[in-house]
Amino acid sequence: MRLVPMDPDNAVAELSLLDTGGLLDVFTTLEAPTIAEIDGEYAAVLLAQPNLFAVVTGKVAVANPLGPWLCKAFRPVDENGGRGYNTFSEFGRVRQRYPMRTLLAESRYDGAPAYTLIYRAYSSMCGSIHMVDEVRRAAPGVYLGMGTWGFTDAQRRVPRPFLLTGPVGPYRGDIGTARPGFTPGRRELPGPPA
Q: Do 143 and 160 touch, CB atoms closer than 8 A?
């Protein structure tokens, strides 16, 4: 059963107080945004992580003071999907990294639709580790995401929560080299748990 979105004035604060289990519980009550709804750059921050390994890898990857994560950005290509990237500040310069393909797909957590970010569609480190993010709308302009990555089914089911707010700016342009002949498989679109 889907609940109504959270109050936009309180959603960020409420989500910031929850642990990973609480965030996943909320995530399964939310609706997926449409492809057309997500357009532009969205400020991004990590939320409570599930374990020490996720905390450490998250700090190294996106909370590094030498190259902090600023946002995720998206643009619809058509009614079925779009493109996107992540933006970092690297020594004072803004850089786009880690392109992804976006589409609506069944969530690995509950089988309901989620706005899904597939990094494997492009050549990058995130694509090489089979990173897939799922996003749902918590409130207007506030989106709860569950990031996953790994080489086994068990690794790819560990949720790494993050928060997107915005849009805070326009999409800067497509980046990345598409993987020739890439079609999302079980690692990228596993569907609901068995």
A: no
- Residue 64: pLDDT over 80: no
Is residue 110 classed as helix, strand or coil in its secondary structure?
A: coil
pLDDT of res. 139: 95
Residue 90 has pLDDT above 90, yes or no: no
DSSP class of residue 47 equals -
Dihedral in degrees, nearest 10, Cα atoms 37, 40, 146, 157: 90
Q: Please report which residue ranges of 47-164 form alpha helices under DSSP H.
A: 52-62, 125-128
The total number of residues written for the chain in this structure: 194
Q: What pTM was estimated for this model as a whole?
A: 0.92
The answer to whether 120 and 187 are in contact (CB under 8 A) is: yes
Q: How many Å apart are CA 98 and CA 131, to the nearest integer?
A: 10
Look at residue 4 and tell me whether its pLDDT is greater than 70: no
Report the pLDDT averaged over residues 39-62.
85
Instruction: In whole angstroms, give the CA distance from residue 21 to residue 19.
Output: 6
Which residues have C-beta within 8 Å of that of residue 8, sequence separation ≥ 6?
Answer: 139, 140, 141, 142
